[in-house]
Amino acid sequence: MKIALIGYGKMGQAIEAIATAKGHEVVHRIDLNTQHLLEKEHLGQADVAIEFTTPETAYSNILKCFAANVPVVVGTTGWLDKLPDIKARCLEQHQGFLYASNFSIGVNIFFEINKRLAELMATQPQYDLQMEEIHHTQKKDAPSGTAITLAEQILEKVNRKTGWVNQESSQPQELSIISRRINPAPGTHTVHYTSAIDDITITHTAHSREGFAAGAVIAAEWLNGKKGIFTMKDVLDL
Ligand SMILES: NC(=O)C1=CN([C@@H]2O[C@H](COP(=O)(O)OP(=O)(O)OC[C@H]3O[C@@H](n4cnc5c(N)ncnc54)[C@H](O)[C@@H]3O)[C@@H](O)[C@H]2O)C=CC1
Ligand SMILES: O=C(O)C1=N[C@H](C(=O)O)C[C@H](O)C1
């Protein structure tokens, strides 16, 4: 499979190592100084694009993939206000698009555990809850995309929380997400349920970026040749 990497930073390089070890060919490494490679004549040479850039640039890069008729796997976080627009354009233009706030298999299993725990806690108002995410200091967005996914899953089930805030909160209806930036931290996410009697805590800790990169390559292999809007849940059949 011919891959165009859009964003050749920490994730782009980790993805290249895994993709080439699996026998794929990286035909473009697109970064700030090689923006001309986003044009259709170049990008169109790839079977699939993998986009890990910045919250400010993901949207226009995805549109370039649509224009070049190349399915795109997107891992960039912090741009979700534009997700409805991207989904609409994807369908209008008959393109392939797969976004995940976290590509690691472990986190996607953790998402399923989080949903089930929230379902059980929905009828147990004696438990309050709080979330925490820890990442390296170069991270641009807060809370993390993964934390937002976890919070949305919880809010769908636990009616005593009406929304999330990215700070400590004394308002019982607010789900507090605390963001910490410490080096080195590839990504740790925790959901704490606390009561006067006991606590239940679930945590996923990434030991490196390998899980995110391996998941992104699996997603690209799966998306190759497909049209439509997908997530990691489709890839892993969860
Ligand atoms: N969904 C997931 O599983 C994961 C998502 N991420 C997200 O991926 C994104 C990138 O993360 P890292 O690689 O760690 O960041 P990074 O800062 O190491 O790399 C980003 C790269 O994008 C480049 N870039 C900036 N604007 C660009 C443009 N217009 N076109 C092409 N390249 C451009 C930068 O020069 C830089 O090399 C972040 O939003 C992060 O939150 C990170 C890890 C896992
Ligand atoms: O920026 C990162 O590094 C990560 N970003 C993703 C997020 O925002 O959830 C996924 C992972 O936690 C690493």
Characteristic terms for this protein:
238 residues, alpha/beta, Rossmann fold, Dihydrodipicolinate Reductase, domain 2, 2 domains, six-stranded parallel β-sheet, five-stranded mixed β-sheet, 8 helices, 11 strands, 24% strand, elongated, binds 1,4-dihydronicotinamide adenine dinucleotide, binds the ligand O=C(O)C1=N[C@H](C(=O)O)C[C@H](O)C1, NAD(P)-bd_dom_sf, NAD binding, diaminopimelate biosynthesis, NADP
Can you offer a commentary on this structure?
The structure is a single chain. The protein has helices at 10-21, 40-43, 58-67, 83-92, 105-121, 145-157, 210-223, 232-236; strands spanning 2-6, 25-30, 48-51, 72-74, 96-99, 128-135, 163-165, 174-181, 188-194, 199-205, 228-230. The chain has 238 residues and is of the alpha/beta class. A six-stranded parallel sheet has the order 2-1-3-4-5-11, sandwiched between helices. The protein has a five-stranded mixed sheet with strand order 7-8-6-9-10, covered by helices on one side. The structure holds 1,4-dihydronicotinamide adenine dinucleotide and the ligand O=C(O)C1=N[C@H](C(=O)O)C[C@H](O)C1. 1,4-dihydronicotinamide adenine dinucleotide binds at residues 6-12, 30-32, 52-54, 57, 61, 75-78, 100-103, 212.
